[in-house]
């Protein structure tokens, strides 16, 4: 379906594309290039009126020697892997439980489960901070009902990681749930009926029909969630601000703090380049898939 | 155990799990809503008061006090203007990418997909320094950034909608004497209404909720609600009634979209994955 086929018509594509292309180049692409450039400079936020000084690769050398940076890489890996795995399992289980015509109120539950995704991350962070509060938070109160002594959700360095994981799982499991549900609804009905006629039980249809059918979507969802988890920052910012110590300081928060707390703009740009490389290396899978689909 | 009792046991189990899930999903939202209608003394009471006389005091305090109305206006303006800009520019570009094969098309598609993935915080330093040099701390800067930030998603989602339209309509319009632009405005745009709805809701959501760039790029006059509420948190640690009242106000569009346009939302969330 291409206009190319109409003879004698001039190509208007560039005219339609130009305004968006201009905005994308000026407001997104140019700053990314600027980030790469600044990563070779020393530039202090407090001396922003002075021009940056070229330092070559010194920012990168400092970064990879820095205990804080390595720690934040580890925190990011722990956080991202944990949330992706937990969300995939929980989301799939819920989709399997809700799927099918027998469950009444499917649409109601599906709508309800969308809410966490829509609510502002800053609000999510603040609400969980309230619920985690050591003295009047509801979570410790619920635990006290079953005889568990108060937990220092946000003050104990060993617990804080679990606290940010729980909040992320709360907000993003619904996303996995919706994608898997959409995938399950694509399972051909006659295939299911045929397997029931053949006497297959639930487990057999699950393993040999449903799971293979949604495998591609599960893989895709995992990549999407992984990339998104590298970007999540605001909930953590408002719950722990990376603390206690640096126990919840994910890479994106480390970038923010390097730039606006330590005021090292050049060093922060080097962190930005690392973060960008991580994100782009994972999104390669998605891009390859999309380009291949174009070819069809 | 007969087959039918086993079936109903399984069904009961399913409902128990689903209901538990629903309670867990809704509880933080319930906490926010209920605390915003409680006086602070009641908000901290344990065991919690499940039944209480609601008060509007927190909302009154928020609305008359401080600079709430200013921040609210900033948020509305920034979100509304960037949404209309981003969706307009996005639909034009989407049309080009859906209907023409031209030099640089594949490169454009790869570029758009890559830009769709970039973390907002990456932009914080370079955009901050650029705007600082230009003396831009106004809402205009934020509008420009949010317009750009949402463009890749808008282009992508609108392109999938346009590609599903039958091309014959456009062809016959051209034969009837429409030019490419009038084909776009008279034929294509009215037919991709649902796509425009999806794009608008998602752009509005990002622009309304965004925190980190607003924190970096605005000053105390131009900041938006998400930044204003976090300032409240650090200034006054225990005024949870007012904080939850602002949180509820920030969440109002989320409630409206969820309960009136759930179908569009699910379409938008799954658009990137299930197709395209």
Question: How would you describe what is shown here?
Answer:
The complex is a heterodimer of chains A (296) and B (276). Chain A has 296 residues and is mainly alpha-helical. Chain A has one domain (72-295): MetI-like (MetI-like fold), CATH 1.10.3720. In chain A, 72% of the residues lie in helices and 1% in strands. Chain A contains twelve helices and two strands. The longest helix of chain A is centred in the N-terminal third of the chain and has 32 residues, at 67-98. Chain A is globular and about 75 Å long. Chain A starts with 12 loop residues before the first helix and ends with a helix. Chain B has 276 residues and is mainly α. Chain B folds into two domains: 3-57; 58-274, MetI-like (MetI-like fold, Orthogonal Bundle), CATH 1.10.3720. Helix content of chain B is 80%, strand content 0%. Chain B is built from 14 helices and no strands. Chain B has helices at residues 3-36, 40-43, 57-64, 68-99, 105-117, 120-134, 139-163, 167-175, 180-191, 193-209, 212-217, 225-235, 240-260, 262-274. The mean pLDDT of chain B is 88. Chains A and B meet through helix 1, helix 3, helix 4, helix 5 and helix 7 of A and helix 1, helix 4, helix 5, helix 6 and helix 7 of B.
Q: Which CATH-level-2 architecture of the largest domain in chain B?
A: Orthogonal Bundle
Radius of gyration of chain A: 24 Å
- Share of residues in helices of chain B: over 70%
Order of helices and strands of chain A: HEEHHHHHHHHHHH
The strand count of chain A comes to: 2
- Write down the CATH topology of the largest domain in chain B: MetI-like fold
The CATH class of the largest domain in chain B:
Mainly Alpha
Please bin the fraction of helical residues of chain A: over 70%
The chain-level mean pLDDT of chain A equals 89
Topology order of chain B in helix (H) and strand (E) letters: HHHHHHHHHHHHHH
């Amino acid at each position: 379906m291409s206009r190319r086929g109409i003879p004698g018509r001039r190509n208007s594509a560039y005219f339609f594309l130009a305004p968006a292309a201009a905005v994308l180049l000026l407001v997104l692409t140019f700053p990314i290039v600027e980030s790469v450039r600044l990563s070779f400079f020393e530039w202090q936020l407090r001396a922003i009126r002075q021009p940056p000084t070229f330092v070559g690769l010194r920012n990168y050398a400092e970064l990879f020697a820095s205990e804080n940076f390595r720690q934040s890489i580890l925190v990011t890996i722990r956080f991202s892997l944990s949330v992706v795995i937990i969300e995939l399992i929980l989301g799939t289980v819920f989709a399997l439980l809700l799927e099918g015509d027998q469950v009444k109120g499917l649409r109601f539950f599906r709508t309800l489960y969308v809410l966490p995704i829509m609510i502002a991350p800053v609000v999510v962070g603040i609400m969980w901070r309230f619920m985690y509060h050591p003295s009047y938070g509801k979570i410790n109160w619920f635990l006290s009902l079953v005889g568990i002594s108060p937990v220092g959700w946000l003050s104990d360095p060993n617990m804080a990681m679990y606290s940010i994981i729980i909040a992320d799982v709360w907000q993003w499991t619904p996303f996995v749930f919706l994608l898997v549900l959409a995938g399950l609804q694509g399972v051909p009905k006659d295939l299911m009926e045929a397997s029931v006629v053949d006497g297959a039980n639930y487990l057999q249809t699950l393993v040999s029909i449903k799971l293979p059918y949604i495998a591609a979507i599960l893989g895709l969802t995992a990549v999407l969630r992984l990339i998104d988890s590298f970007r999540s920052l605001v909930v953590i910012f408002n719950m722990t601000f990376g603390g206690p110590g640096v126990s919840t300081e994910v890479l994106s928060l480390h970038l923010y703090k390097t730039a606006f707390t330590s005021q090292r703009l050049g060093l922060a740009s080097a962190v930005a380049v690392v973060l960008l490389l991580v994100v782009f290396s994972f999104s390669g899978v998605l891009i390859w898939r999309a380009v291949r689909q174009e070819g069809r | 155990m007969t087959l039918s009792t086993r079936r109903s046991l399984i069904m009961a189990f399913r409902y128990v799990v689903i209901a538990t899930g629903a309670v867990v999903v809704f509880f933080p939202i319930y906490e926010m809503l209920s605390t915003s209608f409680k006086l602070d003394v009641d908000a901290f009471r344990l065991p919690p008061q499940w039944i209480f006389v609601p008060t509007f005091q927190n909302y009154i305090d928020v609305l008359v006090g401080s600079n709430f109305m200013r921040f609210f206006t900033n948020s509305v303006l920034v979100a509304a203007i960037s949404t209309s800009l981003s969706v307009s520019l996005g639909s034009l570009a989407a049309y080009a990418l859906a209907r023409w094969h031209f030099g640089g098309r594949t490169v454009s598609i790869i570029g758009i997909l890559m830009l769709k993935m970039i973390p907002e915080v990456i932009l914080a330093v370079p955009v901050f320094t650029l705007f600082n040099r230009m003396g831009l701390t106004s809402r205009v800067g934020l509008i420009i950034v949010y317009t750009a930030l949402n463009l890749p998603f808008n282009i992508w989602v609108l392109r999938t909608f346009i590609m599903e339209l039958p091309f014959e309509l456009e062809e016959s319009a051209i034969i009837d004497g429409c030019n490419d632009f009038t084909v776009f405005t008279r034929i294509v745009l009215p037919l991709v209404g649902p796509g425009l709805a999806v794009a608008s809701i998602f752009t509005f959501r990002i622009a309304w909720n965004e925190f980190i760039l607003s924190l970096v790029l605005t000053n105390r006059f131009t900041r938006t609600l998400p930044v204003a509420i976090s300032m409240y948190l650090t200034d006054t640690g225990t005024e949870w009634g007012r904080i939850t009242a602002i949180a509820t106000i920030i969440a109002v569009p989320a409630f409206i979209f969820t309960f009136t346009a759930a179908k569009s939302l699910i379409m938008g969330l799954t658009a990137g994955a299930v197709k395209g």
